Queue: 3 jobs
Job 1
Amino acid sequence: MILSMPISRNFKRRTLLVAAALTAATTPALAQTKTLLRISTPAVPDAWHAKMWTAFKETLDKSAPGEFDVQINLNASLFKQGAEPTAMARGNLELTSVSPADIAKLVPEFSIFTAGYILHNPAHQQKVFNGPIGAELFKTVSEKMDIAVLSTCYLGTRQLNLREARNVRTPADLRGIKLRMPGSKEWLFLGNALGATATPLAFGEVYLGLKTGTIDGQDNPLPSVRAAKFYEVTKQIVLTGHLVDSLFIAIANKTFQALTPAQRQKVSAAAQAAAAYNNEFTLKEESQLVEFFKKEGLQVSAPDVEAFRKAVQVAYQNSDYAKVWPKGLVERINAAE
Ligand code: KDO
């Protein structure tokens, strides 16, 4: 009896210690089994296509609690603009929102969506990418880039935004204007097709470029002009509406394939929810921003859009880009309206 008491106490103590040690050992182990989903985007925090990643994370945390470690990196803080697909191919990044221009580097026929005045409006964009055309092209994207497109975001319709106000009716009125475009040849072609002198610059450097005058203007959808505060350093918006712009939420194939079927479904659903969030708020805000910019003192002018459309279409028709567009694709895109 005398001996039994300490033994039993000792036993209890040891049991507790073992339990504590086990908890300590298993907690980090469990944390490590979470699938890491690193996201990189050049979007500024106030942009809808930045905030949509929080919607993605929240949706996934709810549908698959504790299964994913979603890390959102904005402002191109993890990878520079346009470098994301390469980072994904190398296994250094799991998710991003990829632009048509970035896809066109590896899937040349995708350059059709970098061309001005191809997509008619946001609803047309969704029909094209959520229908058979999207399905066919995204299959090629998966094969050539090793990424899976999960949803299509409406970035907004790109307009011109100039440092100094001027009379802009036709492309001829942009002669000599140093128009900042993102840094790839597809973007530069579009800027030149608009009649300007296209100058490559990363998104993160545009504000300063406008402020100091190293560029005369830039093009972006109105919600991006608001989120990045370009209206503070420009005096005019010219409503050319030259590109109904897209971003595609994409995940590295390797990461996606390593998930269980249920997880794949949940990640896809979260990407759909993120795009829906972005699209809803982008559309809503875009319709209100002309008033906002006017109040901020900017001149908002309507050019001869037909003159721009014609010039841009002729430039593409005569370019090497159109040569690699699958036969009949322009017609199929038009018919998807
Ligand atoms: C830009 O650099 O003008 C652009 O609008 C291009 C888009 O493809 C996308 O990269 C976007 O910037 C960033 O997400 C910042 O809004």
Job 2
Amino acid sequence: MAYRVTLIPGDGIGPEVTESTRRVLEATGVAFDWEIAYAGADIMDKYGTPLPESVLDSIRKNRVALKGPITTPVGHGFRSVNVAMRKALDLYACLRPCKLYPGVPSPFKDVDIVMVRENTEDLYAGVEFEKGSDEAAKLAKLITQAKGERVRSDSGFSLKMISETASRRIVHFAFKYARSYGRKKVTAIHKANIMKFSDGLFLAVSREVAQEYPDIEFEDRLVDNMTMQLVKKPYQFDVIVAPNLYGDIISDLCAGLVGGLGVAPGANIGDEIALFEPTHGSAPKYTGQNKTNPMAMMLSGVMMLRHLGEVTAADKLEGAIAEVIAEGKSVTYDLKPETATEPPVGTSQVADAIIKKLAKK
Ligand code: NAD
């Protein structure tokens, strides 16, 4: 029976990388019945919203979705569709494996890190008070009354909220993931020395939850130290769990360690629903050029296959992608070393090369 999956092409380079991913997934022999759902900047005029309720309904019904990137205009227009989607579907865990495949130009060796990022709160919750607004003035007054702190009258505010509930479930998620995938260690990241009531809470809960998983090693690191450690000795990390904002930044750093956003897959997961999408955004300047790397989205497809229990197909597709990378011929510009003599290929040619490999497996 075919798997019914919601397929969201997104905008910018989204439709190109999505189409290439659809082709390689079908070439694994697993049958899919795609329910195509449109969201993003391109449908604003038609639907009056970048995120029609029908898209969320489709995901709720199918419980599995594969999504291309969606643009968030800076400073104006709609709040991020991606954040809204994660909130509406309570996709509280963002999972981003960062694995270095042989052949990827990188100064590092042996990187195989899985980043688990809390997805629903922290500074990302979008609770903000604009400079000059009545609410900002009220908040400033409250802070002065409650804490004796003077607040500049021209301040804007973004609130950082970290709860015990969300911290507990994300740390459990990280440990359960570590157990299921034979990982040895979980590292929690924070800045608890300074932000005692938000990051401090996250750390306290992490330590408590860790005791329920004695088979998995646990450690914690300050986020600033973590960035340095990651670029000096990335091989010492296995699974990393972090609150939302640090998770966002550190996962891009980890993507950089393994060759960049072109090979960084991801998933947003809740108790009922899993949505797979690359870490990268819509890279608007490359739209329609058949230029960008579809492998991040294809590797997100590999994660989806594993989630569906199609482990053999997942291994086959990951193997085919790894072979194409190792050969270094049919890869996009981001995977070509500076010394390469042959030009890079386009998005759809990467898919062609992977489909050829799959046919031989
Ligand atoms: P981006 O990830 O879109 O692109 C940054 C740069 O990374 C690109 O210019 C390109 O050089 C490189 N890059 C990205 N994807 C690549 C690929 N597949 N192959 C090769 N190179 C690639 O980040 P941005 O420019 O900061 O964001 C653009 C838009 O995407 C913004 O509106 C942002 O909000 C949105 N965004 C969406 C998501 C999502 O849909 N989940 C994630 C991140 C950013």
Job 3
Amino acid sequence: MSRRPERLLIRGGRPLRGDVTVSGSKNAALYAVAAGLMTADAVTLHNVPAIADIDEMGELLRALGARFEYVDGTAQIQASELTETSAPADLVLALRASFLVMGPLLGRLGEAACASPGGDVIGARPLDVHLAGFRALGAEVGRRGAEWVARAARLQGARIFFDYPSVLGTVNILFAAALAHGESVLINAAAEPEVEMVANMLNSMGARIRGHGGSVVYVEGVERLHGTEFSVIPDRLEAGTYLLASAATGGDVRITNGVPHHLDSLTTKLSEMGMTVDLAPAGESGGIRAACQGGGLRAVQAQAVPYPGFPTDLHAPLAAALTQAHGVSVVHERVYDNRTLYVGELRKLGARITVGGQSVIIEGGTPLVGAAVRALDIRAGAACVIAALAADGETQVHDTNHLDRGYAHLVERLTALGADVERA
Ligand code: EPU
């Protein structure tokens, strides 16, 4: 979990082939760690990825008075006595998910404070969905210096309409509503598998949540929650990244623990691009395989939208793979307003790719050539890695700390698939 500035050296042109087992979901694990604050009892989480963001979230829990230990994929949390209601500013700046301490603290202690959090530079990232949700549940929400402060003697269940199906917003309001008095209905909630998972985890702690994984979620508030032992779902975004690397390199990669229905939007695109896709039977996790056929890839159109649509986090990796498809592809971004900065990095490798408004236009079939590029955020970094794996010669990917935030054992996993990659 090093945070030193490092480079990846990638000598491209080799098809990726073989099996890869992905880590537990970064985002779901962050929500699960925050959920550890919801009870005084012990919470044990398995399949937690060894990434820097989890370290930071653990630090944040400790700063609030909770115990947090992480060993070999298992996190132990105990928040029996919370000594602080305010999240320290330095940790909040490092991590977008830090704002998730608000719901648990408000629900358990009646007060919570946190500054506007940091996170990747990918567009405006407001908090109105979170704040409106807390207010709807009866909290008073205001500013204290740089912090948002929410207070409520006891939250009251309510019918809450979300202006946007914000992922973290939905999780925060789920936390608060789970400990409120009476029933809440969350309308236009985020349906991402990571949100569904955290609701399942809360139910395993005694919460009464129904409809999660859909856009209308019902929460019957309870007095308190108890401890749990819970396993984090596999990372669909890490899985998607390796499948797109397979596409870009003319490869054949199987994600041994992929959950096919979490990636319907991607596997449909991979089929449209001309890959052969094999899925484990419906409802089972057990694999997603995407293999290139002779004749190369075809261009496609895609729109990045909330789940179950194509994920914004796979927009840049998809665009990188489409540099190798025949014809003109378009990827339209509808979640973030500044997610196209990676385009300049792919151009350094020779990609013919331009931005028009919120659309990225890719003239595919271009031979890429190694160059020095920067990982501007986690997914921009993943796009650079995919393009580098398809390029002739050596690419240096700088600022790998971004990649380390989301991709555990990246070099080892790529090497096992036959890539020529090392850290310098
Ligand atoms: N939005 C609002 N109001 C709000 C909150 C968000 O309008 O109160 C808008 C934002 O402006 C943005 C859109 O909603 O346009 C998406 O934001 P959302 O709140 O859904 O994103 P998030 O919860 O802050 C999580 C992930 C992101 C992922 C998004 C979308 C974490 C820590 N982050 O962010 O992951 O892109 O959901 O799926 O879980 C990543 O992993 O690389 C990453 C950035």
